[in-house]
Design a protein that fits this description.
Length: about 230
């Protein structure tokens, strides 16, 4: 017995209209109406609503549990991270292409962080440097490195910087492991400390300059590693 499916165009339109409804929903209201009510409101079949709901769940916007109303999920960076990683993998993005994006983006992040960072955020940045310095496992070093850069994004108090940097750095794990694993942590620790000093002293231009120097050093370190593996 074949399953009856709604026309694709109707389902796609339902997905977009339900997205609009989710965006209009008050943040305190965490559930959508039942499928029967949504079908009535949208003027489409319950089959089309059900298929649209399945799409929205796959996109990480809602959660569907039998016997309960569809729940609107809080905003999460995990889906963006996975999509970005998938995009970079399928596109075959090179290390140098990734660094072309990092240089202007993280330079500006450092500049803004130096203007807005709170004392607590500065303390957390310092803690990430200490963790990088004392960690013995490569995976912990990579986490600490990422923690510093994402911590700077948080210090900008701009949610877009935070989302982009969290997602972007998850996609950089393999290159970070290669660099830290073969070149060591010395350059990273020194670069992070110099950036933090500028942020702590609220010197935006100096923080930006030091971030740019730090990332260019990371490029040289990766290139040195790449040359070594080709010998």
């Amino acid at each position: 017995m074949s399953t009856v499916r709604a026309p694709v165009g109707i389902v796609e339109e339902a997905v977009e209209r339900l997205k609009e409804r989710i965006l209009r929903t008050d943040s305190k209201e965490r559930s959508l109406p039942s499928q029967a009510i949504l079908a009535r409101d949208l003027g489409i079949s319950r089959t089309a609503v059900r298929e649209a709901m399945t799409t929205l769940q796959a996109q990480g916007l809602i959660e569907i549990q039998q016997g309960k109303l569809p729940q609107i999920l809080p905003v999460s960076n995990s889906l963006l991270s996975e999509q970005l990683k998938l995009f970079m993998a399928r596109q075959g993005a090179t290390f140098h292409e990734l660094m072309e994006v990092r240089l202007p983006l993280e330079t500006e992040v450092a500049r803004i962080a130096a203007q807005r960072a709170s004392s607590d955020q500065i303390d957390r940045l310092a803690s990430s440097i200490e963790r990088l310095k004392t960690s013995k496992k490569l995976s912990d070093q990579v986490d600490a490195d990422r923690e510093f850069h994402v911590g700077l994004a948080r210090a900008t108090h701009n949610p877009l910087f935070i989302s982009i940097l969290e997602s972007f750095h998850l996609g950089l794990q393999s290159s970070m492991k290669a660099t830290l694993g073969n070149v060591g942590i010395q350059h990273a620790v020194r670069g992070h400390r110099s950036i933090l000093d500028a942020v702590r002293n609220h010197q935006p231009d100096l923080a930006a300059d030091r971030m740019q120097r730090h990332l260019k050093q990371a490029i040289r370190d990766f290139q040195a590693h790449a040359r070594g593996t080709r010998k």
